[in-house]
Amino acid sequence: MLRLCDPYAVEVPDDLADRTGYVFEEAGGGEADRLVIEVEELPADVRPADLIAANRKSAARALGGDPGWPEGQVMTGLGPAHTLAITDPEIVGGVWVAALRDDRGRMWTLRFESAREWADTVFLALVAAIGGGSLPPGWAGRRAHGVPLALPTWLRPPRVYRFATADERVTCILDQGTSDMPGETEFEAWGSPAPGELLVVHPLGAGTAALAGAEATWGQWRLDRCDPYGTVLGSTFARVAAAPGLSLRLVVVEREIEAIGGAGFSAMVASVARH
User: Fold this and answer.
1) Which of 182, 180, 198, 197 is nearest to 237 (CA)?
2) Which of 161, 165, 136, 135 is nearest to 148 (CA)?
């Protein structure tokens, strides 16, 4: 299945679900804008209004009261969204929340934090554009969980896109900010040795390849978890292709069994391209 990872695309096996943390942020810190999008599989009896009520209650508890924050509804390309504006008339900006169910039954929650004077207008426009809509001047087409969005260009898309099987035995990561080969820290994280276990790293191969049209290096390793006597307790297979010129890296980690293997990894590397 083709997965869009702005500004790239990569072919990922169908059984790897999108586990990306969709956070769109403005450059800088402090009062920079931030949009967080979460998609969950929740029971059918949980309504978008229930999520709005939970957000309202949580904010009231944190801020010491509810001054009567306004709620509303916005029609999106996926259906109606319930909204909540957590604002103070004496303070510019605030937090805006929206919740909706899509046609697959998934619950979407959007949380927009902004200190802009006209943040409410921005929020309502980006919510209305979920699932397809107009692209205002100065906005860009984005995607999250396979669904089209329209967002202001100052909200930068995620740097890291992550796809994994339900049991986490296979993980694919497209990292648009790193082009280094893994070191000890990452091997430890991928191999997941328990306290008292040893992690033995076996290089299996290396070479060059084309990644998103740029020259890249690739490497593959087997990471063995061993007891103090050297008995192998389990293995993880890690493959990485990195293009320093693009600051881009593709990682595939397989635990215990090679479901994708070397040939599948090479095909994924070859599929990464700008879209």
Assistant:
1) 182
2) 135
